[in-house]
Amino acid sequence: MRQETDNAKTLLFPTLLGAALLLAIAAIQHHFISHIPLLPRNFIIPATVGATAGFCIGLYHRRLSLREKTLQEAYDGLWRSAYYDQLTGLPNRSLLLDRLRQATAHARRQGETLGVLLLDIDRFKRINETLGHSLGDQLLSLLAKRIATCLRSSDTVARLGGDEFILLIPDIRHPDDMALVAGKILESVAEPLELEGHEVFCSCSIGIIMAPLDGDDDEVILKHADIAMYKAKDAGGNCYRFYSWYMNQQTVERLAMEANMQRGLERGDFFLHYQPQIDLRSGRVVGVEALLRWQTQEMGRISPNLFIPLAEETGFIIPLGEWVLKTACRQAVTWQLPDQPPIRVAVNLSIRQFRQKNLVAMVAETLAETGLNPHLLELELTESCFVERPDEAMAVLHELSAMGVKLSIDDFGTGYSSLAYLKLCPINHLKIAIHFVRDITTNPDDAAIAEAVIAMAHAMGICVIAEGIETPEQRMFLELKRCDLAQGFLFARPMPAESFSHLLSLSEVDRAQYLESINSPLDLP
């Protein structure tokens, strides 16, 4: 009897323990059905706890099976949300980084090359603003499918974020293989898309690196791919660029230049030079164009062709441009002498400056602060200012014109030329681009274009300025075609304000000798 009791206790204890474990698991399941599971993705809670808990199976088996299925489905959904992009269904940044680390380690071990492409949709922001975010999302989803069709089953395409995609191409034999893939993607993306009645044309910029040669960890790889991609964008987009070490050096120099720009405005490193504009009929100086210059302590004299695009890209052009406008207007006031004809000052406006919301108010404030007559200020715009949001551009131009400010189209004929805006906009001057003036006496096409621009502008009551005149033959041609104004090295190089002030004080006879003495070829255009 005692032995049977001991045997019963021996059987009862593990049975109760098993039941307790089963109840605990059931409670855990109930908890994690509505909370984030802390279990591996492939974990399935067993339907039994052991032979000693067998009597409980019948009570809980059906309930546990339902909970197991629900738990597994919930976990699958959370896992997919964590590692896949909801819009495109592609791997997201988290899963991409994991695969990139594995692919890089594999390539390093096997002595292979991993190709990495960073792809960015050109001008996607404009598409989003024009068609709306909903159609923008549809566009990204369709492009993701197109990109995926250009790859092998062993390759990976992931959405890095926004309009950027990353492609991992393992076991690359030669860089030409990557060029073929990139070219195939460019062609596929360029095919027109139909979005709710809108035919949309897209392009992309691609940066390519070869790992581990160009980088052996995920941060460096993505950084270098990004540098190469922006080189493709700088080239106009719709192309690819391979990463090279000098690109990284250029990026470092760009960052240093950006930092120096911020300090340079505070330190007074920026200054203006002024290039005279000549009336071709009378030979008199009637105006100047204000040209920005930058002399740094660390980097010396920097070409405007380098720092102005960077200022435009970073947004620094807004405070810098405001400084230029105020400085030029303040200086122009000192050149208005009682016994001299009025001198007009022309100031360039970039696209970003033109689009700032407070442009008209800023110009009005500057004129009031400096005391310059609005008729003596000319704002030079490029044709690109009219491409996006033309109605808003027209409204701004009419407001500026109503103030009395003169308006000029710079480099006419090199951008998105349209006769419509010439008819609708209050334009006072057209500037024939230097590209046409340079070969005007040797190239019949350039001569025909210049002659046509002059005739058209005069028919519309618009004054014509030719820039970049360097030879007497160019001047003679333009005079014969009745061009109104001219500027260029033939007349005078850009000069400091003090030199131009002295020029104005001289007689007509003495000006030629003075200009010859100060026309140093070292000045940057």
Walk me through the structure.
There is one protein chain. The protein is an alpha/beta fold and 525 residues long. Helices cover 52% and strands 18% of the residues. The chain is built from 19 helices and 16 strands. It is elongated, with a radius of gyration of 35 Å. Residues 1-19, 25-60 and 521-525 have low confidence and may be disordered.
Topology of helices and strands:
Blueprint: H1 2-33, H2 57-83, H3 93-110, E1 114-121, H4 124-131, H5 133-149, E2 156-161, E3 164-169, H6 175-190, E4 193-195, E5 198-200, E6 204-211, H7 218-234, E7 239-242, H8 245-267, E8 270-279, E9 285-296, E10 300-302, H9 304-314, H10 317-334, E11 344-348, H11 351-355, H12 359-370, E12 377-382, H13 390-403, E13 406-412, H14 419-424, E14 429-432, H15 434-438, H16 444-459, E15 463-467, H17 472-480, E16 485-487, H18 497-505, H19 508-518
Parallel strand pairs: 6-7, 9-11, 11-12, 12-13, 13-14, 14-15, 15-16
Antiparallel strand pairs: 1-3, 1-6, 2-3, 4-5, 8-9, 8-16, 9-10
Helix pairs in contact: 1-2, 4-5, 8-9, 10-12, 12-13
